[in-house]
Amino acid sequence: MTQELLAVTIDGRTVRVPKGTTIIEAAKQAGLIIPHYCYHPSLPSPAVCRMCLVEVEKAPKLLPACVTTVAEGQVVHVHSEAAAKARESVLEFLLINHPLDCPICDQAGECELQNYVFQEGRAGTRYADYAKRFNPVEDFGPDVLYVANRCILCTRCVRFMDDVAQTPVLNVSERGDRAYIGIMEDQLLDHPWSGNVVDLCPVGSLISKDFLHKARAWDLDKTASICPGCSQGCNITIDTRDDVVTRLRPRPNLDVNRHFICDHGRLDYRWMNRGDRVEAPLVRRDGATQATDWDTAIHRLVELTAASGPVVVLASGRASLESLGLVQRLLAHREVTAAVQLPQGDEAALGSIAGLALRSERAPNGAGARMTGYTAGWDTAVARAGAAALTVLLDVSLTDSEVASIQGSGAVVALATLDDPRLTFAALTLPVSTMVEENGTYLNRDHRAQRYLQAKPAPGMARPAWWVAADAWAAGGRDRTSLSSAAEALVSLGRDFPTLAGVTVAELGFSGRVLDGAAAGSAR
Amino acid sequence: MGFPHPIHPKETPVLSTHFGDEGARTFAGWVQRGGYQALKKALAMTPDAIIEEVKASGLRGRGGAGFPTGLKWSFMPKGDGKPHYLVCNADESEPGTFKDREIMRWTPHGLIEGCAIAAHAIGAETCYIYIRGEFTDPLRIVQAAVEDAYANGALGANVFGTGKRIEMVVHRGAGAYICGEETALMNSLEGKRGNPRIKPPFPAQAGLFAMPTTVNNVETLAAVPHILMRGAAWYAGLSLSNPKSTGTKLFSVCGHVMKPGNFEVTMGFPMKDLIHDLAGGMRPGRTLKAVIPGGSSVPIMNRDEAEAALCDYEGIIAQGSMLGSAGFIVMDDSADMVYQIYRLARFYAHESCAQCTQCREGTAWTTKILERMLKGQGKQADLELLLDLADQMTGKTICVLSDSCAAPVVSGIQKFRSEFDAYLSGARAPALAGA
User: Which one, out of A68, A349, A388, B297, has a CA that is 20 to 30 A from the CA of B177?
Assistant: First the structure.
């Protein structure tokens, strides 16, 4: 079915958009962001902030671009005198009761009020000599504070809780300029997805306690990544300050997580900053463990993997497709039992959005692990490790009894991020990077392959696990070409795993692709 | 009008014939006075025939906007299979307006009959009467009358044995002015916060509970039985000036007149006579200064404009204001216009629903500026500022509450500038105390 396209001219640029498109979305096609507050593409539009008023030729008054749909031949002026004056006026109205506390406001630097006032506001206020409205800060829930004085009543938070989370605990209380965002009596903003109101708030009114006064927005480096919290594979941005992860925020992907992430994913980042890491390869010989260089370590790894006998691989569900696949390749000549560690938790759906939930499988790459042959049961694999010639651990977290079981293995190679004192018996411990410290690919529960990028350097001599496996493969003389990037590693996996044939980093882009032959899912 | 004073010879009582007559409040009493004949007649007519009759009568909405009633009814979709709703807007909250209150107090069955006819015409089986929360007396009376009508078969599953179902629900509002705005009223009826909705969709497409809905004012609906009984031609003939304004109209006159009250006159009646004759004129020694004719939400008229105006939709527009709800707030030369405008602005600031930025912040800011002026602390730039704010508060928001706040400010400054200047220059002593 072909959709009817309508031609609309916005500030002199003509675009053709499907019938039913709003002017504000059509303007994006024309390369123009119409300033707005209450409008959000993942929420219903109430057209209350009146910031997006534009001049439409032949219309008697300015129209809100967020709810006015385009008509054939429509001519829209965003920067006409009347529209610019209306925006300037809305900004003046919004500022009369807004404190100028930007120096202590977490939102400063990424505040839409700041941005638009800077872009098109008046230089000074005419609201002289009057007191500003004052309401105390309110504690809305586990991670959210409401700074009422900064609120511009755009109601995005109320609509998120009403229409998206379908847990209507927020409301607009009072009328006129006494209005503020209220929370229902005896209720908390503790929905598993409630943290999104902080991202949705265009100003510094709803703020995260976790992030409170941690960093200025302009000091943060942003890296596109995938949430490692569960198998949903929500797209995120990792914000780091001086190579310390300070917060995770959703990155829009309409097919996976729209504009949202859950609080579990949002707040589970402290492990990314742990300092108790393995920083150098450790070789155990004659009962002593010694730090060594990578060449020596790789040589030892080649020795251990080249031997014969059954092998058990226990891998983390956070390991990349590249690491999982290349470890399999390295051991392909042996009898391999491979299992992946997938912690479980309660599922928490996001109300109205089908296909979006915090999944019970609390690892990002379970599907990738299964696709690359990590299909053995965890307990079975652990039990087998006790009698195996070789056990390879890939960043797993083991219980004491699991450690005891593995100790019976002929040899243990640990590709590890954390320095685990219980594993001193390992013949070889190799420092590997976490997903924050490397580029890689995950396959989410819908078999969507998605890339994540390195957000901070790996400590010491740590390397991505795929690099270790690829180096050992090359050093073993089985391949002349070593792999120098995760992108090359992904391409090379195509020859081992038919599902990945032809998949490239460039093709996946930043929103990923559902791999052919796999069940498709959608968060639309 | 018949209550609280006798009918003036220049009045044309139609709706107000039985005002003051307690016997008209019961079903039996209403029937005795010729009531419910119109409903019986309507039930024998097709909806289209009723709509045509009302169109021909020239009846226009009495709530303020003056939209042709028959045309509004004809917008309701036909054969769409959805439930249709009729909503009677009895949330009369406009300052200076108290005509619907008297209709409900004295002739509740006239309203019920009008509602039932309209419901039949638009294909609705349910009618909601949304009564202003403060109207305790009208609420009690209408509630009793609805029960009485049910008990006598004028409402219910089988109205007068015709097989036609017309249910009527009386809903009490909670006292917000904004709930008189039809879309806010529908939100309120649905149990939501009374915020006006964006149009489109218009109520006839998606109104109450997202179903096709017609919202009519009490006075509009109360006029319908008379039109059916006496004919569209009779009603259309009731016009003293512009043929687009027909019928009789209740005018609520309050303020500085000797005999405040409701007066029912034919459309086009001179405002001068209404104020100086029917309403008893000014207090001794006082002269007329200003009239706000449409409730408070329209431009203020000065004496010359008021005395030249003819009381119908076009006649008042010709004198620079609007008929609105036809609640005349009359002020004599003792009125302090700056204070009066401040008082109105304060009302709108209090009642703004807080959705739209210009209204939420603008009404409050306007009030603060006027308040400061009245305290003798105004600044010369304040007048320009008030006008600039009013300009940005007009035509920019979802509903017209913001415009309504701006209208008296703009017209007040235009027409009574010297009074503002007197406060600014210090020539007039502060009217409000305080720092």
Answer: A68
Does residue B80 belong to any structural domain of this protein?
A: yes
Task: Note whether B73 and B188 are same-domain residues.
Answer: yes
**Residue tagged 């920019």 (tokens):** B396
Q: Which two tokens stand for residue B66?
A: 């003056």
> Domain containing B409 — which CATH number?
1.20.1440.230
Q: Could you write out the three-class secondary structure of A381-446?
A: HHHHHCCCCEEEEECCCCCHHHHHHHCCCCCEEEEECECCHHHCCCCEEEEECCHHHCCEEEECCC
Residue among A93, A98, A132, A178 with most chain B CBs within 10 A, to mutate? A93
Task: Specify whether the CB–CB gap between A381 and A393 falls below 8 A.
Answer: no
Tell me the C-alpha distance between A7 and B260, whole Å: 59
* pTM for this prediction: 0.94
Between the CA atoms of B328, B334, B335 and B338, what dihedral angle is there, to the nearest 10 degrees? 160
ipTM topping 0.85: yes
- B327 with B353, same domain? no
Domain limits at B401? 337-425
Check if B351 contacts A (Cβ < 8 Å): yes
Task: Report the top-level CATH class of A99-219.
Answer: alpha beta
Relative to beta strand B84-90, strand A244-250 is unpaired
Q: What is the DSSP letter of A126?
A: S
B 243-272 → A contacts, CB under 8 A: none
Q: What is the mean pLDDT of residues B390-399?
A: 97
> Nearest-CA neighbor of A32 among A49, A18, A52, A57?
A52
Spell out a b/e string for B220-258, using b for 16 or more CB atoms within 10 Å of the CB, else e.
bbbbbbbbbeeebeebbebbbbbeebbbbbbbbbbbbbe
Q: Measured between CB atoms, does B198 come within 8 Å of chain A?
A: yes
Longest pairwise C-alpha distance within chain A: 89
Angle formed by the axes of helices B417-425 and B337-351, to 10°?
100
Decide which of B180, B212, B237 is a domain's last residue.
B237
Within A122-280, strands assigned E span 138-139, 144-146, 170-173, 180-183, 206-208, 221-226, 235-241, 244-250
pLDDT given for residue A523 in this prediction = 40
Burial class (CB in 10 A: 0-12, 13-18, 19+), A399: exposed
Measured CA to CA, the distance from residue A392 to residue A304 in angstroms comes to 10
Q: Over range A259-268, report the average pLDDT.
A: 98
Distance of residue B109 Cα from the nearest chain A Cα, in angstroms:
36
**B251 in helix, strand or coil?**
strand
What residue spans of B285-328 are helical by DSSP H?
Answer: 303-308, 313-318
* A439 contacts A459 by C-beta, under 8 angstroms: no
Amino acid at position A520, single letter: A
Residue B352 has its nearest CB partner, among A62, A94, A175, at A175
Cα A369 to Cα A156: distance, rounded to the nearest angstrom = 39
State whether the Cα torsion A198-A200-A201-A202 is positive or negative: positive
Cβ within 8 Å, pair B352-A127: no
Q: From the candidates B360, B367, B379, B405, which should be mutated to test the interface with A, based on the most A CB atoms within 10 A?
A: B360
CB B124 within 8 A of CB B214: yes
Phi, psi torsion values for B116, nearest 5 degrees:
-65, -40
pLDDT band of residue B1 (cuts 50, 70, 90) is low
**Mean local confidence (pLDDT), A373-377:** 96
Tens digit of each residue's pLDDT (9 = 90 or more) over B267-291: 999 999 999 999 999 999 999 999 9
Residues of B in contact with A151 (CB under 8 A): none
Closest CA to A119 of A84, A95, A76, A153: A84
User: Looking up tokens 């993942």, which residue turns up?
Assistant: A42
Query: Total domain count for chain B?
Result: 3
Residue contact A177–B349, C-beta within 8 A: yes
